[in-house]
Specification:
Structural class: alpha/beta
Strand order of the largest sheet: 5-4-8-9
Order of helices and strands: HEHEHHHEHHEHHHEEEHEHHHHHHEH
Number of strands: 9
Distance between the termini: 34 Å
Number of helices: 18
Radius of gyration: 25 Å
Number of domains: 2
Largest sheet: 4 strands, parallel
Shape: globular
Helix content: 55-70%
Length: 362
C-alpha cells in the first residue's frame, strides 16, 4: 500500500513538508519538498548529544525545552501558513517518527490535519531507488550522440520520450558547462532523475532517448546502473560540418547564456561574469591542452571578449571555438565513442535525426 501512495505522490507533484533539520535537507530532498524544520541544526546537534549521554526521555525533554513557548508558536504558525497554501500537502521527517508525529500533533491542535508519510524520507528514497532500477530494466534506451556543437540538446528539447540529463544537473556538460547558481546535490539529482523516469514509464513504453554523456555532468554523477545501461545502448548519430558546429557552440555558450546571466547577476554584470566563466572553463583544461596551446587560445578568447565589449561584435569568438572543437573536443569524442558497444541505428544531420526520433513518438 505504501508503494502505491508513494507513486501517487510523485506522479501528482504533491507538495511535501519536510521537517528535518536544514543540514539533512541540504544533503538530499525531493523536487516538491519545502523545508520548515522542527529543529534547526544546532538544536538537533544538542539533542543528539543528550540522547547519546542520557537516553531518549532526556533528549525529548531537551527538545521541548528548546522548542517551546514563542519558538514553538512561530514554527507552528509557519507550518499552518504552508498548509493553507498547500492543502494537498503531506508531512515527513527522516523515518516518519517522533519529529513528524510531533509536528502533526501540534498542527492538529491548531485545527490542521495533515497526512503523515509512513517511513518518512528514508522510505520515499528507498522507493525511488528500487523503482529507478525497475524502470531502467524495462526501458529501451537510445543514445543521442554527436560531436560537440552538433546541437544534441536542441533535439532533446523537442522530444517527449526523453530525460534532459544536463537540465536536471543544471550544467551544460563540458568544461565550459557551468551555469549561474549551484548544481543540485547528488541525491537531489538522483531523485529528480528517478521521478522523471518513473513518470515516463507510467505513461509509455516507447524508446527512451538520452543524450550520450560521460560519467559526470559537472559534479553530478550518473547513477551506476544508468552508466552501465548507456554503455551498450544503440546510438543515433548527429553529423554536422565543423562550421555548423562552431555556429551552434557560439549560440549555446556565448550568445544564449546572456539572458540567464542577466537574470542571476543583473544586466550590468552579466557579460563580464559570462566572460569570466568562459576563461575559467578554458583554464580548467589547461593541463590537457598543454601550456602553449592554452596560452594561444586564452589570448584569442580575451581578444574576442574585448571586441564584444567594445562594439557587440561576437564574430571573433569563432576563432577559439573552431580550434577547440577541431583539436581538443573532436579527438576526445572519438576516443569516447570507441568505448561504446551499442549499434548505430541512424546517422544524419540534426534535422534528419530530429525527424527520425520524432517519428518514434507518434
Amino acid at each position: 500500500m505504501a508503494h502505491a501512495q508513494f507513486l501517487e505522490l510523485f506522479l501528482a507533484d504533491v507538495p511535501l513538508l519536510d521537517v528535518r533539520a536544514p543540514v539533512e535537507f541540504g544533503k538530499g530532498a525531493f523536487p516538491t519538498a519545502h523545508n520548515i524544520p522542527l529543529l534547526n541544526d544546532d538544536e538537533r546537534h544538542q539533542i543528539g548529544i543528550r540522547y547519546k549521554q542520557q537516553g531518549q526521555e532526556a533528549a525529548i525533554a531537551l527538545g521541548h525545552e528548546l522548542v517551546g513557548g514563542d519558538v514553538r508558536a512561530a514554527r507552528t504558525a509557519a507550518w499552518v501558513d504552508w498548509y493553507r497554501q498547500h492543502p494537498d500537502g503531506h508531512l515527513y521527517c527522516f523515518r516518519g517518527g517522533l519529529r513528524s508525529r510531533t509536528v502533526q500533533q501540534w498542527l492538529q491542535e491548531e485545527g490542521v490535519n495533515i497526512p503523515l508519510i509512513a517511513g518518512g524520507y528514508k522510505a520515499l528514497r528507498r522507493f525511488l531507488l528500487e523503482r529507478f532500477q525497475q524502470d531502467l530494466n524495462r526501458s529501451h534506451l537510445q543514445l543521442l550522440s554527436g560531436r560537440t556543437g552538433t546541437g544534441k540538446t536542441r533535439v532533446i528539447e523537442q522530444l517527449t520520450q526523453t530525460l534532459d540529463l544536463e537540465g536536471l544537473a543544471h550544467h551544460r556538460g563540458s568544461s565550459f558547462g557551468r551555469r549561474p547558481g549551484e548544481q543540485p546535490a547528488q541525491i537531489d539529482f538522483e531523485n529528480a532523475l528517478a521521478i522523471g523516469l518513473l513518470r515516463l514509464r507510467e505513461a509509455s513504453d516507447r524508446p527512451l532517448v538520452l543524450e550520450d554523456e560521460g560519467r559526470l555532468i559537472g559534479r553530478c554523477a550518473l547513477p551506476i546502473p544508468l552508466q552501465t545501461a548507456m554503455k551498450s545502448a544503440p546510438r543515433v548519430m548527429i553529423e554536422e560540418s565543423l562550421e555548423s558546429r562552431v555556429q551552434v557552440t557560439l549560440e549555446d555558450y556565448v550568445l544564449g547564456p546572456v539572458a540567464e546571466y542577466r537574470a542571476f547577476y543583473g544586466a550590468d554584470q552579466a557579460e563580464a561574469r559570462l566572460g569570466e566563466a568562459l576563461l575559467a572553463g578554458l583554464d580548467r583544461i589547461q593541463r590537457r591542452l598543454g601550456g602553449s596551446r592554452h596560452a594561444a587560445l586564452r589570448e584569442t578568447l580575451c581578444a574576442a571578449l574585448a571586441l564584444q565589449r567594445e562594439n557587440g561584435d561576437v564574430e571573433a569568438h569563432r576563432d577559439w571555438i573552431r580550434v577547440l572543437l577541431r583539436d581538443y573536443y573532436d579527438p576526445m569524442y572519438d576516443y569516447m565513442l570507441s568505448k561504446r558497444e551499442g549499434d548505430t541505428l541512424f546517422r544524419g544531420t540534426r534535422d534528419a535525426v530530429q525527424q527520425f526520433l520524432s517519428a518514434q513518438e507518434t
